[in-house]
Amino acid sequence: MHFKIRYDEKFLACFLFLFSLALFFLQKNTFLYSNNSSYVVSFYIVGPVNTLIEKGKDNFVYCHYCVKNFLSVFRHNVALTKELQQANRYKFQVRQLSQENRMLRHFAGIMEQDSAYYLASKIFFVTSSSGHHCALISVDSDSSIAIGQLVVDLQHAVVGKVEGLYKHYAVVLLVSDIGFKMISYLPDLQCECVVEGCGNGYVKVIDKTGKDIQCVEGSVVFSAKDNSNSLSGIPIAQLTRDSYNNLCWKPIANFSTNRLVGILQNNKMSSMLGNID
């Protein structure tokens, strides 16, 4: 049986053919990438059917189009993609923390089993002036930084202690700053002592009665156990000679570029890792 296709039906047939090609292309390209997604697109000319699209007409083009759960599958795939990206970010952060924890465990004297390490924050600014310099450390809302905690670095030395705590940053008083004072230990003489900052990058070491302690060049002062703000075995200063060949105490560590530092709190350590720009 032959029948004519009207112009409007030719237009509709052409449109449906192009539409099916577009859907096929999309299915091949990322939009439908779930195993559960499927579709069928077909178009054909049928004879007299009075109950379909154009009721009462003899001939018409009929299109059958089915996409199985297109929207739900698409949304599901988008959600899975976001979850995967988030999981990859967490995986990267955990890997970073593991590397930092391994570095922190190289601190001398803090190999105890009850020591803990946490990522807290980073140094973001250092200022310096004659006889006094301090560091500003960014503070996270969930960090456990407190005034009096010691700041240490990954080159096995005490750098300073937290002097001021504000909403977004903490001020660190460095070892050589005037006002820094800490109970320490001198292994050469097997005695406890006090390290005081005297400015201009130097410290002085006195015994508990206030008398100067005489040591030989190369002697090192360590943190003492009875100081609640420190752990045993962390170096603080070393006896050396200045430009005039005079014996003086120089802090073993001061802030410098790319220095990794941490915060000591009792027998816990909150690592504060970052670069100084």
TrEMBL record:
GO terms for biological process: regulation of cell shape. Residues 128-264 form the Rod shape-determining protein MreC beta-barrel core domain. It holds the Pfam family MreC. It comes from Candidatus Sneabacter namystus. One of its GO terms (cellular component) is plasma membrane. This is Rod shape-determining protein MreC beta-barrel core domain-containing protein.
